[in-house]
Amino acid sequence: MERSPSVSPSSQLQDELQASVKATFDVSVKRPILKHLNADSSWLLSLPYPEHIQPPPGRCRYNIVIDVWLRGPQVDLFGWFSSQEHAKPSNIQSFAELNDLLGGAETAVTGQEMGGDSVYCIDAVCCSHEFTDHCHEATLKELPATVPVFASKKAASLVRSWKHFEHVEEVPVYQAGYDWRSLKDSQLPNWVGVGRIHTKGDAPIYFHSALMITFALSADQNSATEALVYTPHGVHADSFALVHSGKHPIKVLALLHGLHDISLAGAQLNLGMENAIKAREILGAKYWAPTHDEQKVAHGIVASFLKRIVHTLPWAPGSHPITEREAGQSDREEFNVAEKSFVELGNGESCVLT
Ligand SMILES: [Zn+2]
Question: What is the pLDDT of residues 160-170, one digit of tens each?
């Protein structure tokens, strides 16, 4: 893969992180794998089955896709109002292609034929928002109706209105003391959970919200449950303190949060790098991968009012705004702390989360 030029003192660490980025997909490792399906905000989180759980025949992973929009335009309300297309073709062009990739990778490891329900290797779909770049009808309807969908309240209503999927589940909004295991009648396996985190005071749209996918990969009750926190527009960093207030300890393995500041008529839409640096620290995330930063081809009146400030963390130490919390530190120190976790996954690239 192409490497980003790095000029910071911790470039060696950064190189090690980037060395784990692969364009191939090898599921023999018994750790979560994160794969970027396009250049924007569509992801695969591939989880290994815990050793004490028997997977379906021929399978060894539980595969969750998040906010998948692969081809064609995404329109908000009307094309003249707001319409966007990917500037770069998605590395994965269809769910059939992704399913073939996953099936081949798992069969190579298990050495067993898949049969019955286990033939389809996409096990769950998550939609963080009802907006059509996160909940894309044409893409999602490529899936078999039997794949369960886990979505925010409004996104769940939208998906149900298509009358395509048999099971659409509204994900709970976590509050202090939440229990990620408490989902009853859920089609998630009991070692996986999905919940939502809101920015305080962001009602009623909850534009700044996150999905948190939790997974207990060990039978040992004492080992912490791990989590991936996905927030395409950002959650105000302070609101992430909630993650550590649950009934069970959570270790945040990865944060997906964009770098770019995007605003519309003065209102900040994507919170960008400054918020991501704070969020990563509050969450204690081991990895931070940017998301939703593709500079798409946009049409309509909304596009003419959008303002984007592009940040490139590995390239430009010192380029980001100094925050209040940073006042006691040099900009470079703060940058280095953030960089230790930063792994940039391009269109189609994947990374093992160790
Ligand atoms: Zn968005």
Answer: 999 999 999 99
Q: Ligand 1: distance of its center to the CA of 178 in Å? A: 26
Dist. CA 10 → ligand 1 center (Å): 32
Q: Which residue, among 19, 18, 43, has the nearest Cα to 32 in the 3D structure?
A: 43
User: What spacing in Å lies between the alpha carbon of 131 and ligand 1's midpoint?
Assistant: 7
For residue 52, the 8-state DSSP code is T
Predicted local confidence at residue 315, as pLDDT: 52
Structure tokens at 152: 């925010």
CA 292 – ligand 1 centroid, Å: 7
Distance of CA 251 from the midpoint of ligand 1 (Å) = 26
Cα of 180 to ligand 1 centre, how many Å? 25
Asked if the model's pLDDT at residue 7 lies above 60, the reply is no
Q: What is the DSSP letter of 321?
A: P
Given a contact cutoff of 8 angstroms between Cβ atoms, the answer to whether 95 and 142 are in contact is yes
Cα gap 189→201, rounded to integer Å = 32
Bond prior to 232 in cis (omega within 30° of 0):
no
Euclidean distance between CA atoms 340 and 282, whole angstroms: 15
Ligand 1 centroid – CA 189 distance (Å)? 28
Options 3.30.360.10, 1.10.760.10, 3.30.470.30, 3.60.15.10; which CATH number does 11-352 get?
3.60.15.10
* The pLDDT value given to residue 17: 63
Convert the pLDDT of each residue in 20-79 to its tens digit. Answer: 666 667 888 999 999 999 999 999 999 999 999 999 999 999 999 999 999 888 877 666
Strand residue runs (E) in 92-208: 124-127, 149-151, 168-170, 192-198
How many Å lie between the centroid of ligand 1 and the Cα of residue 316?
25
Contact between 88 and 294 (Cβ < 8 Å): yes
Taking the CB of residue 161, how many other CB atoms lie within 10 A of it?
10
